[in-house]
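Good morning N.,

You mentioned wanting to compare the apo and holo forms, so I went ahead and generated the holo version with zinc ion. This is what I fed in:
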Amino acid sequence: MKFNREHVFDYAVAENVGPGLVRVTARNPSAMTFHGTGTYVLGADHGAILDPGPRMDEHFNALTTLLSGGNPSHILVTHRHQDHAGLASTLSQAIGVPVAACGGGDVVVDEGLGSETPARDYHPDIGLFDGDVIEGRDFRLEVVYTPGHTSDHVCFVDPDHRRVFCGDHIMAWSTSVIVPPDGHVGHYLDSLERLLAYPDHVFWPTHGPPIREPVRWIGELIEHRHWRERQLLDELSAGPATADKLLQRIYGDIDPRLARAARASLMAGIAWAMDRNLVERDDDHEPPAYRLS
Ligand SMILES: [Zn+2]
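and this is what came out, ligand included:
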């Protein structure tokens, strides 16, 4: 079946969002995934599937139906979270193409949060490294290693169409969730700066709309983390405080669905400040408190 613009599956929406670019949105909306995971299918002949998405029958059916009218050669994955990589192995077996994803990364522990947890049975066939070029008959992508959200996060740059596929590293509607120790604010900020090298590209995140002014948005994301750190240091300038106290003072009344994400962000911020010897842990305090170094 050839895909056309009007085709809307019963269970997922596929849209042509640019030349040689289709987005199939999974029906897994949540506080973490926005409208749902957007799987991108690249190339005039559907050569590459980027982030196959969550392990959902209806999303699998939408993709295999679409791909039956094409000639796919690669499944690409930005990072191991289940809402991106969950379907990778099943789809790979079904359509007979390999999975390519980060070949390195120093995974510490990735417990994640909700859908932001590692996919099971996920074993990429091809390891990608920074600067690699991966190409098929109808697409060509450069790999940029962007740790921070997770240690195995990569972005894919399409220089021919001036596009960056930025996974969960950059989202248009929210900041990225960083869950330490695998997630790391310092690495995340370094990775954001690397993407400033593509000021005239459109950034396509997995969740939410495209970003057409990436430099301005990246600047805001960087500033947001520095603002959070200033809040942390201000609170601690009044004296040691536990994580619970800091959470309450900095984040106030938060949507209960985002409480764990807020706590993870706080702990990621503390870890980053500790890395730079701005903050230290006071283990004599029970429960442990944090103070300025
Ligand atoms: Zn993720």
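Residues 1-11 have pLDDT under 50 and may be disordered.

Happy to go through it together on a call whenever suits you.

Best,
F.
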